[in-house]
């Protein structure tokens, strides 16, 4: 039996917020989204990968459009520098199917599919609190509105989380990730690298970190982009040059010559440096509150699972709303189903971070069998779509 006549307020209108809004609307609720930013979220030009079966499920369910461009690849290639030289050594090729997306296009598609949802831009929520007669209140600078359910999709510093799990704090990993995109013409004159990224996503190991590369569609029609994430220690306090220069410096220090040249070429079309950190809320819903996406948990990005989890959160919300006699019952079912995933991903992200940044192996000495053994030892039984092939062996 579905809950009917529900009013849902969603705090945050990014990937998790839009997906949760679609879920609520599809379950028949009246949904209002409050997004702090009045800028264009679609301009966030980063790459994001999701599992192909999830992509297919979201298209079939109407969250994503089949026409949204993606750049799926079936494999992962592991590279390192040749010992004592600067040429590239291919360590292994694993079956690892991923669907890379352009973050802005993903957001725009979710936003467009949030039919019938009221979406307020430039409306920061200042407080979320329980109403004494039931439900919850969302406060902004100019308004106060009551809802049956409030969804916190407001990211790592969630005000919604503060209403029912105030003690949860991110735990820093002690290293950073540089995330950006490069125009495709950086690959001109590098036919081998071009061929690799057309068919696979790349993990490039070095002592104390690694880089990840994959193609994504462009924001507008036209050529795609080369997305990257490079993990390693933070820049020294004495570093005063541009951030782009630091990324080039890391590549020059650690990458094979061809890949360092690619990173050195062309203006980075987007670039951000994130301190890597993680946390999870033990129970992700407590009626009338519910958390989704990064508001509920953050894993180290080696799992490529934050947006994935947010989208799965939404599919779960739609299902429990449609199967429950009351909002409180739906939220309890949501908490039962989704609370464990944050903890699981945090543990997996830590294991991957230890193995791929904090205690890196002698990458260049490894071949396909060693990479497969090392992958299995790192996963320690945990599932990850990024390691599909080695898990099935
Ligand atoms: C380097 C890196 C690589 C990654 N790669 C992947 C990947 O390949 N695959 C994957 O699945 N995930 C990946 N992730 C994780 C993914 O980017 C995030 O988990 C996801 O974008 C989180 O979405 P969200 O909507 O929960 O949070 P956010 O995108 O942070 O959105 C929160 C929104 O809430 C709004 N907001 C905040 N406070 C308020 C307020 N008080 N009032 C109103 N609005 C508010 C903000 O403006 C924002 O729009 C990666 C992360 C990093 C750092």
CATH fold group of the largest domain: FAD/NAD(P)-binding domain
Mean pLDDT: 94
Number of strands: 18
The CATH architecture category of the largest domain equals 3-Layer(bba) Sandwich
Helix content: 25-40%
Provide the structure class.
alpha/beta
Outline the low-pLDDT stretches: none
Strand order, largest beta sheet: 3-5-4-12-13-14-11-15-18
Strand content: 25-35%
Number of domains: 2
Bound molecules: flavin-adenine dinucleotide
CATH superfamily of the largest domain: FAD/NAD(P)-binding domain
Top CATH class of the largest domain: Alpha Beta
**Number of helical elements:** 11
Order of helices and strands: EHEEHEEHEEEEEHEHEEEHHEEEEHHHH
Q: Globular, elongated, flat, extended or rod-shaped: what is the shape?
A: elongated
Main sheet record: 9 strands, mixed
Rg to the nearest angstrom?
Answer: 21 Å
N-to-C terminal Cα separation, in Å?
42 Å
How does this model look, in words?
By secondary structure, the protein is α/β, with parallel strands linked by helices. It has helices at residues 15-26, 52-61, 103-113, 159-164, 191-199, 243-254, 257-264, 306-323, 327-358, 368-379, 388-392, and strands at residues 7-11, 30-34, 47-50, 73-81, 88-102, 118-120, 125-130, 136-140, 144-147, 149-152, 171-183, 200-206, 209-216, 225-232, 270-280, 285-286, 289-291, 297-298. It folds into 2 domains: 7-50 and 104-170 and 279-350, FAD/NAD(P)-binding domain (3-Layer(bba) Sandwich); 73-101 and 172-276 and 359-392, 2-Layer Sandwich (D-Amino Acid Oxidase, Chain A, domain 2), CATH 3.30.9. The strands form 3 sheets. Strands 3-5-4-12-13-14-11-15-18 form a 9-stranded mixed beta sheet, sandwiched between helices. Strands 6-2-1-10-17-16 form a 6-stranded mixed beta sheet. A 3-stranded antiparallel beta sheet has the order 7-8-9. A hairpin with a 2-residue loop joins strand 12 and strand 13. The structure holds flavin-adenine dinucleotide. Residues 11-17, 34-37, 48-50, 124-125, 153-155, 159, 177, 179, 229, 274, 293-294, 301, 304-308, 310 line the site of flavin-adenine dinucleotide.
């Amino acid at each position: 039996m579905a809950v009917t006549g529900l009013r849902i307020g969603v705090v945050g209108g990014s990937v998790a917020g839009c997906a949760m809004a679609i879920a609520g609307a599809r379950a028949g609720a009246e949904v209002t989204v409050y997004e702090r930013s009045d800028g264009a979220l679609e301009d966030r030009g980063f790459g994001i990968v999701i599992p192909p079966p999830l992509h297919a499920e979201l298209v079939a369910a109407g969250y994503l459009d089949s026409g949204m461009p993606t750049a799926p690849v079936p494999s992962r290639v592991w590279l390192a520098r040749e010992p004592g030289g600067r040429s590239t050594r291919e360590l292994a090729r694993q079956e690892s199917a991923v669907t890379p997306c352009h973050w802005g296009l993903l957001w725009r598609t979710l936003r467009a599919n949030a039919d019938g949802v009221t979406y307020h831009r430039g409306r920061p929520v200042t407080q979320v609190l329980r109403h004494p007669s039931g439900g919850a209140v969302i406060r902004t600078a100019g308004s106060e509105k009551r809802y049956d359910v409030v969804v916190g999709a407001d990211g790592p510093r969630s005000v919604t989380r503060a209403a029912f799990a105030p003690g949860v704090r991110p735990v820093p990993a002690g290293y950073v990730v540089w995330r950006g995109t490069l125009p495709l013409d950086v690959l001109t004159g590098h036919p081998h690298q071009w061929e690799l990224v057309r068919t696979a996503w790349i993990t490039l190991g070095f002592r104390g970190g690694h880089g990840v590369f994959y193609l994504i569609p462009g924001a507008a029609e036209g050529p795609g982009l080369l997305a990257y994430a490079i993990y390693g220690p933070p820049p020294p306090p004495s570093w005063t040059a541009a951030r782009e220069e630091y990324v080039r410096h890391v590549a020059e220090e650690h990458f094979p010559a061809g890949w360092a040249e690619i990173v050195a070429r062309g203006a980075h079309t987007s670039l951000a440096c994130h301190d890597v950190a993680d946390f999870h809320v033990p129970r992700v819903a407590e009626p009338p509150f519910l958390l989704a996406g990064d508001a509920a948990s953050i894993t180290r990005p080696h799992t490529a699972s934050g947006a994935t989890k947010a989208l799965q959160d939404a599919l779960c919300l739609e299902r429990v709303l449609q199967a429950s006699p009351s909002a409180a019952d739906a939220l309890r079912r949501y908490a039962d189903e989704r609370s464990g995933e944050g903890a699981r991903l945090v543990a997996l992200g830590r294991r991957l971070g230890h193995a791929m940044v904090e205690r890196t192996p002698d990458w260049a000495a490894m071949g396909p069998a060693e990479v497969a053994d090392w992958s299995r030892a790192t996963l320690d039984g945990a599932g990850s779509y990024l390691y599909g092939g080695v898990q099935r062996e």
